[in-house]
Amino acid sequence: MILRAALLAGGLATAAAAEDRRTGYEMMSPELRAMQDDEMSNPGMLWVAEGAALWEAPEGPAGRSCAGCHGEAAQSMAGVAARYPAWDEASGAPVDLSGRIALCRTRHQGAEALEHESRPLLALAAYVARQSDGRPIAPDPDPRLDPWRETGRVLFTARMGQLNLACANCHDDHAGGRLGAAPIPEAHPTGYPQYRLQWEEMGGLHRRFGNCLTGIRAKPFAAGSPDYVALELYLMSRAAGLPLEAPAVRP
Ligand code: HEC
Ligand code: HEC
User: Fold this and answer.
1) Predicted confidence (pLDDT) per residue in 183-237, tens digit
2) Which residues line ligand 1 (CB under 6 A)?
3) Is 21 a catalytic residue?
4) pLDDT score recorded for residue 17
5) Which of 63, 70, 75, 148 has its CA 20 to 30 A from that of 97?
6) Any residues with Cβ below 6 Å from ligand 2, and which?
7) pTM recorded for the entire structure
8) Residue 171 is assigned to a ligand binding site
């Protein structure tokens, strides 16, 4: 209720206390939660292991690895996923975690670009995110991100698609209810990239956005597009304080 009042007031919903909100994890069956919690049965751990190997792999003409610059991920990457997206000085725009990793590939390794949603980029993002498992979401307070957060809020509340529905119609107004067989979550981006049973693989938050847009018969934006990064910035501020799940499992 506090969340809804904050949205109606037009402000960012960071005022809502973490205990008033429920993550997708809390809405899952005990069986799925157990699958996520157990490293041996969580299918996302396969991507984390692949990411750990890529972290050490030399790339580009100078043969530099991620580890060559960043050292032990357990130290250098702890908390990073919990505060992304962040500002990128060089491009004068925000980047999400996958965007940042892709930029390190091209700028710092001189290697070929990795596409959003490609397997190696998902694996690296899953490995980096793993270093923040359980940490509270702590959005970057950089004021240059504020106009983008506001753009994301506007997108979240704008009616779209042939069904003429806003994200907020389901995820604020009817969160906790059902859409057919599926429980409607509050859309907290606490567990990305995630292993979705429906996908039978790991996928990113922007792919999830695309699923919801297709559901309301709207045309999805491209993964990594500025509109999706703005939506992500808004949803991360709305989820501030909730625990990050890496890797998450969803139905
Ligand atoms: C018609 C209702 C509806 C609308 C509109 C909708 N969604 Fe969803 N969304 C769902 C349902 C239902 C799920 C649960 C997943 C499933 O089983 O499909 C979901 C899941 C999600 C999740 C995953 C949460 C988690 O725990 O991982 C996110 C994030 C999300 N939606 C964001 C959005 C955004 C952003 C928009 C607007 C662009 C949007 N949704 C529009 C119904 C909707
Ligand atoms: C040659 C050194 C170098 C290499 C190799 C490198 N990075 Fe980076 N990385 C940087 C620098 C410098 C930054 C700060 C942002 C910038 O200037 O691009 C950074 C920033 C980051 C950040 C954001 C950290 C934060 O606190 O915001 C992540 C995540 C990251 N790198 C991941 C990777 C991954 C994954 C790889 C391997 C695919 C990699 N980096 C390879 C130099 C490197």
Assistant:
1) 999 999 999 999 999 999 999 999 999 999 999 999 999 999 999 999 999 999 9
2) 24, 165, 167, 169-171, 179, 182, 184-185, 187-189, 191, 208-209, 212-213, 215-216, 231, 250-251
3) no
4) 64
5) 63
6) 64, 66, 68-70, 80, 86, 100-101, 103-105, 107-109, 124, 128
7) 0.94
8) yes
> 212 CA to middle of ligand 1, Å?
5
119 is in an annotated binding site: no
What pLDDT is attached to residue 5?
38
104 annotated to bind ligand: yes
Question: Buried (b) or exposed (e) across 28-52, using 16+ Cβ within 10 A?
Answer: beeebeebbeeeeebbbbebbebbb
d(CA 232, CA 156): 10
Q: Using one digit for the tens of pLDDT, what is the confidence trace for 69-113?
A: 999 999 999 999 999 999 999 999 999 999 999 999 999 999 999
